[in-house]
């Protein structure tokens, strides 16, 4: 039975808690995902959130920061829209670096990041990332240190990949350590297939309520 057979998505019944594996060597962050392992692949939650599963999310961490890798399968060319990202191919990443979970309104530790796999226009440029304010926030988060953030993408005939590195000082309150819990949700927009959700679902007010985001726990360091 698929998620679409339910009157409401099964994701509404529980909070996602996923372990972010530790890795000794940081990824190269070049858009090529060959140095990522299956152990770093996150659970496939797209159908539980009531949608198609067309993107694979991987996470990892070490003392140098948090690493995010996304592999998206497509049968059509990538199309992006800077003014209205959700109408094209785009990624929305929601992060709460402290994950207090005590308020339905965002704090200074909450971020809403928009990622485009390529620059809008006739020629394919590099990927783009920026911060979007969270509505009704109790406190606004400081701007990310975009100079420290590393972002890369790779556009292929059958889709694209995005790779992101968030160093400790790039987001307010982020201090990578074993056992750290962060709030996280992701929405992957596809111009043909709609949206795929991870850590939340479309029926939640995820755009403004961090309590509807999943939890990501930094796994045990080893080696």
Note the overall shape: globular
Write down the secondary-structure element order. EEEEEEEEEEE
**Rg of Cα set:** 16 Å
Number of helices: 0
Indicate the low-confidence ranges by residue numbers: none
Report helical residue fraction: under 10%
Arithmetic mean pLDDT: 90
Largest sheet: 7 strands, mixed
Distance between the termini: 41 Å
| CATH class designation | Mainly Beta
SS-based class: mainly beta
CATH topology: Immunoglobulin-like
CATH architecture: Sandwich
The percentage of residues in β strands lies in 25-35%
Count of folded domains: 1
Describe the fold and architecture:
This protein has no helices and eleven strands. Strand 7 (about 150-155) and strand 8 (about 160-165) form a beta hairpin. Strands 1, 4, 5, 6, 9, 10 and 11 form a seven-stranded mixed β-sheet that branches. It has a four-stranded antiparallel β-sheet with strand order 2-3-8-7, with no helix packed on it. The chain has one domain: Sandwich (Immunoglobulin-like). It is mostly beta strands and about 220 residues long. The chain is about 0% helix and about 35% strand. About 40% of the residues are buried. The protein is globular and about 45 Å long.
